[in-house]
Write a structure and sequence with these properties.
The protein is built from eight helices and seven strands. It has 171 residues and is α+β, with helices and mostly antiparallel strands. The strands form two sheets. Strands 1, 2, 3, 6 and 7 form a five-stranded mixed beta sheet that branches. A two-stranded antiparallel sheet has the order 4-5. Helix 2 (54-62) packs across helix 6 (109-115) and helix 7 packs antiparallel against helix 8 (135-149). The longest helix is centred in the middle third of the chain and has 15 residues, at 90-104. The protein is globular and about 50 Å long. The chain starts with a strand and ends with a strand.
Length: 171
């Protein structure tokens, strides 16, 4: 079972995974697996895959916002955004997401984007993670291949006693 912890090594709000027999990945929905402690820094010259933005586009449409209104703010053409294998500079993506929240008026747009995730959104990355035997294996696989989705992203598993913490960092 995934639980929040407020121990001395994991501040309130971070997600901890208990140790011991690890449940199979299939025992949890993707929403629980996607939960993580996030520490974000400026992305510098980092880029990320357009695949990471697809759920946000669907969340905007569900909120009644035309996503084409956003492309103009960062001089992005429709063909570029439609290229699932394309990449976007981290600062431009963050501007796009901030403007998405403003246009939609939805402070929980990230949550609604997570609800819009579809099987296959993350292509081969998703396949290797889903093929993992346990949640721990899946998180280790995420750490190994995450830079393919965001080249400034890294993740780690920290174990202390009976708890494990998965930390996602953008640097």
């Amino acid at each position: 079972m995934i639980h929040r912890t407020s121990s001395d090594w994991a501040p309130e709000g971070q997600i901890a995974f208990p140790s011991g027999p690890h449940p199979r990945l299939d025992d949890f929905g993707h929403r629980e697996v996607a939960c993580a402690a996030v520490s974000a820094k400026k992305g510098g010259g980092a880029t990320l895959s357009f695949r990471l933005l697809a759920p946000f586009t669907r969340a905007l449409v569900a909120a009644g916002v035309d996503p084409s209104r956003l492309r103009h703010s960062i001089s992005l053409d429709a063909a570029s955004l439609a290229d699932a294998d394309g990449r976007i500079a981290h600062p431009a993506a963050m501007r796009l997401l901030e403007e998405s929240v403003q246009l939609s008026g939805d402070e929980a747009l990230g949550i609604h984007a997570a609800e819009q995730l579809r099987p296959g959104d993350f292509d081969a990355f998703e396949y290797v993670v889903r093929a993992s035997r346990t949640i721990r294996d899946a998180l280790e696989t995420v750490g190994r291949y995450l830079p393919l989705m965001h080249d400034a992203a890294a993740s780690s598993l920290v174990r202390r006693g009976d708890d494990e913490l998965w930390i996602l960092t953008l640097s």
